[in-house]
Amino acid sequence: MTASTPSLFGDDDDALKPVPAPPLATPHEPRPDPKAVTSAKAAEKPAPAPAPSGNYDASAIEVLEGLEPVRMRPGMYIGGTDERALHHLFAEVLDNSMDEAVAGHAKSIEVSLDADGFLTVKDDGRGMPVDPHPKHPGKSALEVIMTVLHAGGKFSGKAYETSGGLHGVGASVVNALSERLEVTVWRDGFEHRQNFERGKPTGPLQQVAPSRKKGTQVRFLPDPQIFGDGAIFKPARLYRMARSKAYLFRGVQIKWSCDPSRIHDQTPPEATFHFPNGLADFLAERVKTTATVTESAFSGRIERQGEAGAVEWAVTWTPQGFGEADGFMQSYCNTVPTPEGGTHEAGFRAALTKGLKAYGELAGEKRAGIITADDVIANAGALISVFIRNPEFQGQTKERLSSSDAQRLVENALRDPFDHWLTASPKAARSLLDFVIDRAEERLKRRKDKEVSRASATRKLRLPGKLADCSGAAVDGAELFLVEGDSAGGSAKQARDRKTQAILPLRGKILNVASASGDKLMGNKELADLMLALGVQPGNKYREEDLRYERIVIMTDADVDGAHIASLLITFFYRTVPELVRGGKLFLAMPPLYRISHGGKSLYARDDAHKDELLATEFKNKKPEIGRFKGLGEMMPAQLKETTMDPSKRTMARVVLPRDESSVEDLVETLMGRKPELRFRFIQENAEFAAADVDI
Ligand SMILES: Nc1ncnc2c1ncn2[C@@H]1O[C@H](COP(=O)(O)OP(=O)(O)OP(=O)(O)O)[C@@H](O)[C@H]1O
Ligand SMILES: [Mg+2]
Ligand SMILES: [Mg+2]
């Protein structure tokens, strides 16, 4: 029984998906902090019904009976309810027949998919026991197998030695998740049958007729209530699964058939799989047209002496890779695929690496010393299959083998055969050794190149002289303030938190960028410096991970000129690094315009409206002193810090693109274009808007 670890977090991965752009239409409308968006999203979900109060007692603790838990939580048993999980039902039934074959009782397995969607797996093994079960009065062993979790014959090793089954769960899980399921058993001179619906018997086990055959047949239709209405078995997938099983045990023949009406691709409607050379055949099939380093693959099979257990393997190397990948390793334990690898793979890698290094040393090849397991395996196509008693798989799944003796078993099994293989054909051994040493040397060279390029990248990164960078190295939390003019730059430098806040003063009026060409843009020293400070490349070469700051803050005077410069810069960002803007990295600082004080109290107002409001409330019936800041440069550093820069006190607006970005062009045209009256209006609005109270 293979099961996936249940997801502890339910469907929460939604929270990790990018947050959709909020429907804001102008660059000056604030966008909420991403964190706030996440929680806002959570808040959108329908509020949970008020919890029923007062009866959380023993009656609230349910014990699921029989197969109920399987239908309630299929993911726990088959890793989900998707197509992969659906096909896993087939794996469970097929594994049971394979166990019967590996135990030496079945020689032939038949798999067929019928026109009505039922899948049948039939073997000629001993047949499930049908006699009454001693511990379940009135029930046959067959019924217990099909309806009781953890009922199985593979716990003690008496009936099966090296089986893929070990939990006693598989057959009952398939039953629970099938709309209908019929089991037919031939044994003890009779054909027996019992039918089930969604895990429940629809009648008793019946002796249908005398028969001298033996074996078991399970025919079932997965339940659409579990897998969805459209869920059906895919012939191609069943075909592949059946065929690879046959490669894994040479003592079995698997017959495949499928109703032609169900096939919509190249899958053959009938086939017989029997591979007397096991994994060697499997590998030959995979590398059919691929040129390999050695003429023949290294393959073999070793039975454990005196005990149950076996190791089988096949491996070959190729310079050009196998399709998409440079190499592959597929591993199996008791014919169950272990896609996550495990101890058998570790033993395999160790055996090949040690063997090849030892051979290199013997051949006087000094460079063999640099070989690592990765060099040996990276370009190999490898299959490894072990048969062991009481396999241990990690956690709830059978995807990774963790039996520690499997590593020793494989390593010991391969040592001598690999040695013999190498010494028996010195030409092949030499080719392999050279090939692997080349890989090792390439690896070392790559590492060196990487070190060199990292060093030169650091050297190349010259920052503009005017930039007062932050002293902390972390990008998280780092902010770059773009300020207008050197005097404001001076105040900002004193007001900043050196660790996380950097200041770049931009001198004079920057180019009217919207109408400038790319060359002109980059030719502008101020803007070139800005890009250098940001660390990013323009256009589609922009990579967020290059960005040296978490936030870029445009900090200009709270007047019409300042608003103009801010809009020029926003336009520049939108034209040059739109992804930066889309990523919500660009902000507008909101310095105050007035300082209002009376007695010991002083407050700042962002604009006229705010000033009037304060005068009507905080300073009601008083005659306070009102000062107007002409520019940031006029503010005391402490004031600038308190009102505009200190993250715990300030207000900033995030620049957000409208959802319909085509209107950005209009906006830019409005801002920068040829109609001065439009421009003036925007600037006024922007100046006003920038005063909006937005906390981030
Ligand atoms: N085709 C079969 N032939 C003979 N006996 C079978 C067959 N299928 C199932 N059984 C018996 O039914 C038992 C229960 O099968 P089930 O698949 O539920 O569990 P399992 O194979 O023991 O373990 P796992 O849950 O890991 O598959 C098996 O242990 C075996 O004794
Ligand atoms: Mg089983
Ligand atoms: Mg069972």
Question: What is the secondary structure topology, with strand pairs?
Answer:
Blueprint: H1 34-44, H2 68-72, H3 74-78, H4 83-102, E1 108-113, E2 119-123, H5 141-147, H6 170-176, E3 178-187, E4 190-197, E5 200-201, E6 206-210, E7 215-222, H7 224-227, H8 235-248, E8 253-258, E9 270-273, H9 278-286, E10 298-303, E11 310-317, E12 328-333, E13 336-337, H10 343-362, H11 373-377, E14 380-387, H12 404-424, H13 426-460, E15 479-484, H14 486-495, E16 501-506, H15 518-523, H16 525-534, E17 551-555, H17 560-576, H18 578-582, E18 586-589, E19 594-598, E20 601-605, H19 608-616, E21 625-628, H20 637-645, E22 652-654, H21 662-672, H22 676-689
Helix pairs in contact: 4-6, 4-8, 8-9, 10-12, 14-20, 17-22
The structure holds adenosine-5'-triphosphate and magnesium ion (2 copies).
What is this structure, in a nutshell?
The protein has 696 residues and is α+β, with helices and mostly antiparallel strands. The protein is 36% helix and 18% strand. Strand 3 and strand 4 form a beta hairpin.
